[in-house]
Amino acid sequence: MAAQFWLLLRRLYLTLYNWTVLFGWLKVLYLAVQTLGESGHEHVYDAVQRPLQLAQTAALLEIIHVLVGLVRSPITATLPQIGSRLYLTWGILWSFPQTQSHILVTSLVISWSITEIIRYSFFGMKEALGFAPSWLLWLRYSSFLLLYPTGITSEVGLIYVALPYIKVRILMMLNKEIFFFFF
């Protein structure tokens, strides 16, 4: 009886988690596409910043899910995926505002959004209904053929765009350290 209760609780929690994050990513995609059409790529980040940060940061829970055994994903796959996304979200886009109006932000946000909408829909339906439709299964394991190259190109491109600003920040930090060392 207790085991069934915990299984039900696990299923309910994962269903709520997946559907909540799915709606977050739907909002990110909607705002990105709307802003792109109305104002251009230069304004996409401003429109999606908060929901993007929330959706990406919520993925930290997935590391906990793996560690406590709620899901069977390997930590060796989960950690780098979430770490790289958080690095882009907080370490590049948030830390270096100069990158926020670049066109690669739009391709990044759209690639990530579509990927995560498919992923969270798949897992949300699997937890809620016990299965996912075959078309969603196909999307889950086929869409990466297009979305992975656009996502990774955007990620690497934005890191490259940020490099001059990273260099300046490092030099400023080193100059402060040298100054305080001598005085």
From TrEMBL:
<keyword id="KW-0256">Endoplasmic reticulum</keyword>
<keyword id="KW-0812">Transmembrane</keyword>
<comment type="pathway">
    <text>Lipid metabolism; fatty acid biosynthesis.</text>
</comment>
<dbReference type="GO" id="GO:0102158">
    <property type="term" value="F:very-long-chain (3R)-3-hydroxyacyl-CoA dehydratase activity"/>
</dbReference>
<dbReference type="GO" id="GO:0030148">
    <property type="term" value="P:sphingolipid biosynthetic process"/>
</dbReference>
<dbReference type="Pfam" id="PF04387">
    <property type="entry name" value="PTPLA"/>
</dbReference>
<dbReference type="InterPro" id="IPR007482">
    <property type="entry name" value="Tyr_Pase-like_PTPLA"/>
</dbReference>
<keyword id="KW-0443">Lipid metabolism</keyword>
<comment type="function">
    <text>Catalyzes the third of the four reactions of the long-chain fatty acids elongation cycle. This endoplasmic reticulum-bound enzymatic process, allows the addition of two carbons to the chain of long- and very long-chain fatty acids/VLCFAs per cycle. This enzyme catalyzes the dehydration of the 3-hydroxyacyl-CoA intermediate into trans-2,3-enoyl-CoA, within each cycle of fatty acid elongation. Thereby, it participates to the production of VLCFAs of different chain lengths that are involved in multiple biological processes as precursors of membrane lipids and lipid mediators.</text>
</comment>
<keyword id="KW-0276">Fatty acid metabolism</keyword>
<keyword id="KW-0472">Membrane</keyword>
<feature type="transmembrane region" description="Helical">
    <location>
        <begin position="103"/>
        <end position="123"/>
    </location>
</feature>
<protein>
    <recommendedName>
        <fullName>Very-long-chain (3R)-3-hydroxyacyl-CoA dehydratase</fullName>
        <ecNumber>4.2.1.134</ecNumber>
    </recommendedName>
</protein>
<keyword id="KW-0456">Lyase</keyword>
<keyword id="KW-1133">Transmembrane helix</keyword>
<dbReference type="GO" id="GO:0042761">
    <property type="term" value="P:very long-chain fatty acid biosynthetic process"/>
</dbReference>
<keyword id="KW-0444">Lipid biosynthesis</keyword>
<keyword id="KW-0275">Fatty acid biosynthesis</keyword>
<feature type="transmembrane region" description="Helical">
    <location>
        <begin position="143"/>
        <end position="166"/>
    </location>
</feature>
<dbReference type="GO" id="GO:0030497">
    <property type="term" value="P:fatty acid elongation"/>
</dbReference>
<feature type="transmembrane region" description="Helical">
    <location>
        <begin position="12"/>
        <end position="33"/>
    </location>
</feature>
<dbReference type="GO" id="GO:0005789">
    <property type="term" value="C:endoplasmic reticulum membrane"/>
</dbReference>
<comment type="similarity">
    <text>Belongs to the very long-chain fatty acids dehydratase HACD family.</text>
</comment>
